[in-house]
Structure prediction request, 623 residues.
Amino acid sequence: MQTESVKLPRLITPLIDALTNVVVIENGAIVKNTLSETALTITNDMPQSLIDSLFQSDNPVVQHNQKAAEAAYTFKITANRTLEAPINLFIIQKDRNMSQNLTFIVGEHAGVTVNEYIYGNDGSTVDYVSQAVVEAAGKLDYHGIVNLDAASISSINRMVSVKQDGKAFIKTAQMGNGNTQQDTRIDLLGPLAIGEIKTVALSSAKQEVLIRSIIEHKAKHTEGLIEQYGVAADESFLMFEGVGKIHKGMSKSIAKQHNKGVVLGEKARLDANPLLLIDEYDVEAGHGAAIGQIDEEQLYYLMSRGLSEKDAQRLIINGYLHPLEKLLENDIVKKHIESLLENKTA
Amino acid sequence: MAVLKIENLHAKVENQEILKGVSLEIKGGETHAIMGPNGTGKSTLASVIMGHPRYEVTAGTITLDGADVLEMETDERARAGLFLAMQAPQEVPGVTNSDFIKTAMNARLDEGENVSLFKFIKELDTAVAKLKMREDLPHRYLNDGFSGGEKKRNEILQMRMLKPAIAILDEIDSGLDIDALKIVGENVTEMKNPDLGMLLITHYSRILDYIAADHVHVMMKGRIVKSGSTDLMHKIDQDGYDWIKEELGIEDERVVPEENEEGILLGSCATREALEK
Prediction:
């Protein structure tokens, strides 16, 4: 289905061909769709009233996108239906700048897994916003992988609102080579809602990567977990911000956060800035950050079994991908991500 | 048949000399035990043999079949046939036991060669069963969230898979309950063969009820101060170490300051007290 292009992002075509349940959006147009789910409808629009009521942002880039995105699609999962197979969604941008907007609506008691791959080639400006609403007792597994080339600049904003008893598990991987800012935000709107953001980011060369994860507790008995894992190599700069915010009166809520990162080389920089903003006494909250070189003791342990230093390092860094565990159950995706990783840390 | 030869080994950590002239020779087929109170340098000896970066050798030699071990990096030592079952194995989240062991086995082959996947899985499953570990061990992350006993069994599992020429087991008994101790003992005993030389490092002799040693050494003040047969072990078991100290005129046997022991003291003695009740 791919049109010919010398600058097609590496490795992407074999991945698309190997997967089933695929939707490919190329420069804003759906060029391939192998989905055959009756419980899923795709429409070419942006649900403005939903966005106005649930996804107001103070970020001007997002505000602009939500008004003027050049391409917008809405994926809606019918209530009471769970899609067994994941939707593999490819968003590919070639040789042009674009703003795109996707909305996912997970109906009451519905469930879906979305694997989202954002690819673009050199020189593109990528402005991507997604909104997802998880209705009561719905469940969303949302895996976002970004792999953009070195000269690209990107702003990736994902927002999820979770209603009563709903669950949202978001995993993101930032594997690209361009400068990027990635925000992931979950609003827990109903009691017993659960939200998780697990992020892996790798930066190399002279790249600057800013990753922000925010979970806001706007109901009682809500649970939020943020985990951010990073590797900064060469002369790159990787920054993690994590915010767990519990509003006043939202008692019995749990906000947890963990940041872990490895700095390779002397010129790379990795900062973590975990924040807990809590306006309520009766909650459970905690955060931690561990940033440093590769753990010497871990390295020694692996080497004491005969692994070369390089192999030992590779395994340990690979280990940082474990938040993507579920996604990596798919061997094709696992191989793909590992090869991206190898390119980044070679 | 492998020969590990240690001569007049001196080593220090952070400018403090811990090993003060250790000499020891271990041949394939032999099982040696080094006993001694805490803080006398036993674990340091194990770490120095394996090449832990924290320790600096200031004098003496270690050779394996004549090759200079001190010239080798840690991974080269392992590939040459040395294995250390560690007292406190590291947790490495994100790295599965299976990936780790497979990579370690492949590291012993020529470049481009890999262990047969079928053979590997079969061997690993057998080892898991023999050590009575959880069946999902291959897919679990390396020692991540393992109990103390599981970690120790995982060390022996790795030893089974990697088939070293010389294996050093550093306090393999600490933190093990009696059932786990029996499992570890049986597995190690089963591995004994005329090509495998072993060094058991222990604070307390009960592991030697499960793994027979033919040479027993006592370490104090960073040196081996007494060597003998199993009779020596039995005497220590009954009378403790005081008679040796008296015999040699040693007042303080320690060479590692207590704060450097990282809680090992507590762990070992707690086990001992539990057993004596």
In short: The longest strand of chain B covers residues 16-27. Residues 31 and 198 of chain B are 5 Å apart (CA to CA). Residues 262-277 of chain B have pLDDT under 50 and may be disordered.
